[in-house]
């Protein structure tokens, strides 16, 4: 058991939140969101890791062999798929925002207020 | 019995069909297919609800039933609360699709595809009994909702609203994912019942509290609790009106549903010793949400934004209902959700009709222009009293049940606060109705001032002379159903049963893991309605008085409010960075309070 991956998770969450709060560019902001998403990958994989474990494919190894947890890997893959959709959607919207307003700076986008 | 998966599969299949054949289909065919799918889902949900009354149904996908109390497969657990919510979702979707058949000038099949995906995801979210499944449906629902919100990509307003909505909610989804990962790490399970069994009822430790904070905060972002609520007004103000009724009527409430479900199934036993502390915390959050939403609602002139903030306020009242952590209050909450959904969706559809007929939803620009549509005025007046909680409305019955529970827990003053919030939102709608439909109040010189929120874009061509029947019928039907929803015989009894099934943790675990029958429900007590009746009438009267004050005494200001109000508006800046900062602060405060209170 090592704490390093969990420290990385916390670090990624904190820097990505900081990035989003201070961002001056929508694409940068969405990339920060992607960094936050990476923190969930690290967390999931760290939780399933077993020291000395092999890949969880029980085709030609004994059933009792120590293996890493396959469930979290499946969760992570699903997460990748779902979030890829959301990121693509966000970036497509950003392209449209730029087309209409000519800016990507959240400070300049003031259609909604109060 | 394969109904539960069909409820999710059918709209998704219809969506795929529409997406594949989008090039060859005539526009009307898409309407018909989508409406037929929504109708089919409503009927199936109704049927499932009837079946779930005697005992919750458990469906294991692929026949992966639990062996010896260990669940590996993925399950749908259909209990009256979940199935009832699914009924609400599908009926509102049906109304929205019928309405949008005439609403848009031009809309591609993509719109119907997205709506059907949205429907499937929301129904799945209501029915699932698996934590990761819950997350997947949450994200699917989110993705469809972001796309629907920014549907009119040619306008900057909807795009910004959708971006704010998407970014804030995605951060919320990551919190949920982190929370569920921690729970999985502790229990090695993803099935809700299995997690609950593994967690047991030992005292909560750091990991369990962190998991609770992350899950609850993530879902409360969707439920728009203060300070996670900023995205809601932006998204609801710019989304196409038929979509708004789903956003306000059910999507926001689904976030709260997830918190309620997770709390009662998993966390209620470990946190049992800290009931008082958690109650105080949740009620504080609910109170803040209810009052802030009501004040912001009263300040708006953009009608859709006004309705959006009233949703924030009503979600606050619902959060109080959950926060009482009591079976009676839960029953009240269930009635309230249904009553609120009917009222709010009829109001949004009414706003859409205004936009269709007059090309604007700005209260001041429309001053006195809608004198010749008394039917629509009736819808708005009904809606206003529905929001204020006049007796006969479902919102009143729900509030009555919740305030009775509040008295048991020595929070009798709470119902006065909810009443004030509800009256403020009702007053805002009444004021707007009087201005727009009757031309009351001085013709405001403020109309010259540019609106704070960009005026509604052309979803429909301007100045139609008549209102199409397919748009009027759902609006009026929803308003009238809302009016009588509190009088439905057996409404309170059905809500009691749903609340009983929702909060009975041991029965849920035994039902899912060991296929045990559930015990018969405890007899429901009928609340004494005299005091609440007075409250409801007082609230409606207060709404009227406040509306008149706003109309005829616009100069009347309480000392000190002007600066406070200006600052409050300033906070709702429309800036994504600010919203994320508030979200971070909210999670931090919630986390620290839980860490201190629940140890």
TrEMBL record, chain A:
Compartments, as annotated in UniProt = Cell membrane
Q: How does the record say this protein sits in the membrane?
A: Multi-pass membrane protein
Q: For this UniProt entry, which segments traverse the membrane? A: 6-22, 29-51, 71-92
Domain of life of the native organism: Bacteria
Which sequence ranges form a coiled-coil region, renumbered to this chain? none
Q: Which InterPro entries match?
A: CPA3_antiporter_subunitC, NUOK/Mnh_C1-like
Keywords, A to Z?
A: Cell membrane, Membrane, Transmembrane, Transmembrane helix
Pfam families given in the database record: Oxidored_q2
**Main location group:** membrane
**Which family does this protein fall into?**
Belongs to the CPA3 antiporters (TC 2.A.63) subunit C family.
**PANTHER family the record matches:** ANTIPORTER SUBUNIT MNHC2-RELATED
- What's the protein name? Cation:proton antiporter subunit C
TrEMBL record, chain B:
- Any keyword Nucleotide-binding? no
Q: Which UniProt keywords apply?
A: Cell membrane, Membrane, Plasmid, Transmembrane, Transmembrane helix
Question: Where can this protein be found?
Answer: Cell membrane; Membrane
Q: Which GO terms describe its cellular component?
A: plasma membrane
Its membrane topology is listed as: Multi-pass membrane protein
Stretches that traverse the bilayer: 6-25, 32-49, 69-98, 110-128, 134-151, 163-186, 206-232, 244-266, 278-299, 306-325, 331-355, 375-393, 413-430, 467-487, 533-552, 579-598
Record keyword Aminoacyl-tRNA synthetase present:
no
Residue ranges of the NADH:quinone oxidoreductase/Mrp antiporter transmembrane domain? 129-425
| Molecular function GO terms recorded | NADH dehydrogenase (ubiquinone) activity
A GO BP entry is: ATP synthesis coupled electron transport
Which InterPro entries does the record associate with it?
A: CPA3_Na-H_Antiporter_D (IPR050586), NADH_UbQ_OxRdtase (IPR003918), ND/Mrp_TM (IPR001750)
Pfam families cross-referenced by the UniProt entry? Proton_antipo_M
Q: Which family does it belong to?
A: Belongs to the CPA3 antiporters (TC 2.A.63) subunit D family.
Q: Which PANTHER family match?
A: NA(+)_H(+) ANTIPORTER SUBUNIT D1, NADH DEHYDROGENASE
What is this protein identified as?
A: Proton-conducting transporter membrane subunit
Q: What organism is listed for this UniProt entry?
A: Deinococcus sonorensis KR-87
């Amino acid at each position: 058991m090592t704490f390093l991956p969990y420290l990385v998770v916390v670090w990624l969450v904190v820097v990505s939140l900081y990035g989003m709060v201070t961002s001056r560019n929508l694409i940068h902001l969405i990339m920060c969101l992607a960094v936050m998403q990476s923190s969930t990958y690290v967390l999931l994989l760290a939780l399933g890791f077993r020291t000395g474990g092999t890949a969880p494919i029980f085709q030609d190894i004994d059933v009792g062999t120590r293996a890493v947890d396959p469930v979290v890997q499946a969760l992570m893959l699903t997460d990748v798929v779902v979030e890829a959709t959301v990121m693509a959607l966000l970036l497509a919207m950003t392209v449209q925002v730029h087309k209409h307003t000519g800016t990507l700076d959240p400070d300049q986008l003031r259609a909604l207020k109060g | 019995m394969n109904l539960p998966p069909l409820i999710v599969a059918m709209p998704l299949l219809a969506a795929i069909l529409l997406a594949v054949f989008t090039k060859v289909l005539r526009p009307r065919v898409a309407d018909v297919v989508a409406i037929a799918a929504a109708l089919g889902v409503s009927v199936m949900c109704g049927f499932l609800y009837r079946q779930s009354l005697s005992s919750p149904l458990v469906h294991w996908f692929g026949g992966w039933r639990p062996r010896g109390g260990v669940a590996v497969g993925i399950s749908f657990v259909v209990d009256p609360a979940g199935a009832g919510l699914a009924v609400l979702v599908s009926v509102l979707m049906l109304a929205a699709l019928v309405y949008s058949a005439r609403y848009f000038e031009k809309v591609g099949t993509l719109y119907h595809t997205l709506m059907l995906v949205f429907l499937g995801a929301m129904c799945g979210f209501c029915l699932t009994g698996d934590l990761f499944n819950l997350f997947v449906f949450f994200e699917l629902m989110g993705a469809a909702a972001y796309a629907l919100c920014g549907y009119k990509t040619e306008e900057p307003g909807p795009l910004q609203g959708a971006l704010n909505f998407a970014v804030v909610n995605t951060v919320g989804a990551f919190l949920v994912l982190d929370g569920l990962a921690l729970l999985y790490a502790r229990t090695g399970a993803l099935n809700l019942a299995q997690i609950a069994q593994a967690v047991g009822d030992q005292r909560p430790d750091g990991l369990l509290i962190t998991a609770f904070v992350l899950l609850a905060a993530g879902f409360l972002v969707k439920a728009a609790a203060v300070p996670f609520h900023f995205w809601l007004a932006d998204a609801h103000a710019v989304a196409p009106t038929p979509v708004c009724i789903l956003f306000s009527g059910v999507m926001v409430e689904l976030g709260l549903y997830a918190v309620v479900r997770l709390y009662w199934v998993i966390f209620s036993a470990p946190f049992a010793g800290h009931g008082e502390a958690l109650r105080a915390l949740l009620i504080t959050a609910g109170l803040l949400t209810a009052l802030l939403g009501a004040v912001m609602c009263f300040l708006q002139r953009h009608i859709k934004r006004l309705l959006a903030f009233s949703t924030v306020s009503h979600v606050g009242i619902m959060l109080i209902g959950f926060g009482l952590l009591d079976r009676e209050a839960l029953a009240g909450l269930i009635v309230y959700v249904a009553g609120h959904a009917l009222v709010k969706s009829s109001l949004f559809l009414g706003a859409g009709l205004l936009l269709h007929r007059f090309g604007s939803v700005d209260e001041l620009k429309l001053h006195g222009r809608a004198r010749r549509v008394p039917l629509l005025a009736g819808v708005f007046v009904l809606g206003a009293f529905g929001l204020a909680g006049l007796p006969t409305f479902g919102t009143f019955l729900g509030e009555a049940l919740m305030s009775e529970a509040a008295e048991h827990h020595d929070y009798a003053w709470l119902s006065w606060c909810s009443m004030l919030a509800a009256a403020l939102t009702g007053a805002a709608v009444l004021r707007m109705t009087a201005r727009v439909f009757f031309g009351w109040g001085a013709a405001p010189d403020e109309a010259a001032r540019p609106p704070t929120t960009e005026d509604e874009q052309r979803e429909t061509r301007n100045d139609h002379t008549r209102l199409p029947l397919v748009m009027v019928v759902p609006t009026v039907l929803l308003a009238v159903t809302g009016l009588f929803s509190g009088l439905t015989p057996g409404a309170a009894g059905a809500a009691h049963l749903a609340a009983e099934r929702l909060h009975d943790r041991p029965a849920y675990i035994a039902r899912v893991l060991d296929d045990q029958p559930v015990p018969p429900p405890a007899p429901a007590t009928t609340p004494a309605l005299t005091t609440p009746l007075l409250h409801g009438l007082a609230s409606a009267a207060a709404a009227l008085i406040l509306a008149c004050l706003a109309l005829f005494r616009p100069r009347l200001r309480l000392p000190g409010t002007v600066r406070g109000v200006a600052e409050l508006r300033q906070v709702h800046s429309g800036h994504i960075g600010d919203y994320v900062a508030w979200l971070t602060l909210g999670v931090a405060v919630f986390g620290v309070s839980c860490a201190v209170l629940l140890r």
